Amino acid sequence: MKILIATDTYPKQLNGVSRVLEKTMKELAVRGHQVKLVSVDEFFSIPLPGYREIRVAIFPGSRLTRIVDDFAPDAIHIMTEGPIGFAMQGYCKKRELKFTTSWLSRLSEYASLRYKIPVNWLHKLLVKFHQAASQTMVTTKSMENEARALGIERVVRWRRGVELDKFHPIKTDVFSGLPRPIMLNVGRVAVEKSLDRFLSINTPGTKVIVGDGPQLGDLKNKFPEVIYLGVKEGKALTECYSGADVFVFPSLTDTFGLVNLEALACGLPIAAYPVTGPRDIIGDAPVGAMDKNLAVAIQRALLYNSDDCIARAKTFSWDIATDDFLSNLVPISVGQPVSAEY
């Protein structure tokens, strides 16, 4: 098939959506599908206020139309609810084409937190956006329930995987000499990640932050005793996971958190609040602790076995995730034949 994926997420950003896109496109190519990514790269863009590392497309409509017409896709999937996502939706509606969407983040809550916009206004916009789609893909059962509760009716699951060839335990002395336990967080350093909740905990050991973002400077000033390593990729990132004692995920708004899977794959147990994302990843497995008191969750998580963490990570497969994505796609027109892989 010729599959077009539209996203407002800049491909070079180190975030969950970009990583899902990268892996999914590779898996689709291996299976013989032709994929066109329509992203911010294709358009004139400006930095998002408050998040200079995130760029947003300005008036992408006319150029987007030429790109889609030239590619002539069999299926269209819209990943994000931004200018490109809305422009792609407008293109499809004008031509009466079917399309699918993803609800991968709590954009309403993020925008409300950052820009003080009433969250109920944003929820109405979110529902209108996804109700126009033939199907909306969500990551977990919890997100499926939340989407339906908001009023998004046609909801299907698109599970996630982890690259086990990349994330696995390795011997490392990356944290040699630091007081134990090593409490690690990996991800974007931004207000919606609730990192201050983690860093303000008074508990023995060393807190380590891997990543970058708009809140980094503030956190460094407020919590100078924390180790800030910046962005790590490849083996350097795997060493951080492998060398730590517990992975702390304080976010209250993430819908999943791929970093949790990466941590588990490296034998690292999770400490988190009992919210969507950690709740779906940990499940009933003895691989992490969730508590409204994050300090309690950390102490409990330290008791878990790394082998159980690795075993849990192996249940999340990118092959299955790609099967989900393909089966959830719809042909752009009613008369179009459906591929055997739909």
Task: Give an account of the 3D structure.
The chain has two domains: 2-161 and 318-328, Glycogen Phosphorylase B (Rossmann fold, 3-Layer(aba) Sandwich); 182-313, Rossmann fold. Helices cover 39% and strands 17% of the residues. The chain has 14 helices and 14 strands. It has helices at 16-30, 61-71, 83-94, 107-115, 119-131, 141-150, 195-199, 216-222, 234-243, 258-265, 278-282, 294-301, 306-313, 318-328; strands at 2-6, 34-38, 45-48, 51-57, 75-78, 100-102, 135-138, 155-157, 182-186, 206-210, 227-230, 246-249, 270-272, 288-290. Helix 3 (83-94) links the parallel strand 5 and strand 6 (100-102). Helix 1 (16-30) packs across helix 14. The longest helix has 15 residues, at 16-30. The N and C termini lie close together (10 Å). Residues 337-342 have low confidence and may be disordered. Pfam families: Glyco_trans_1_4, Glyco_transf_4. Residues 15-165 form the Glycosyltransferase subfamily 4-like N-terminal domain. Keywords: Glycosyltransferase, Transferase.
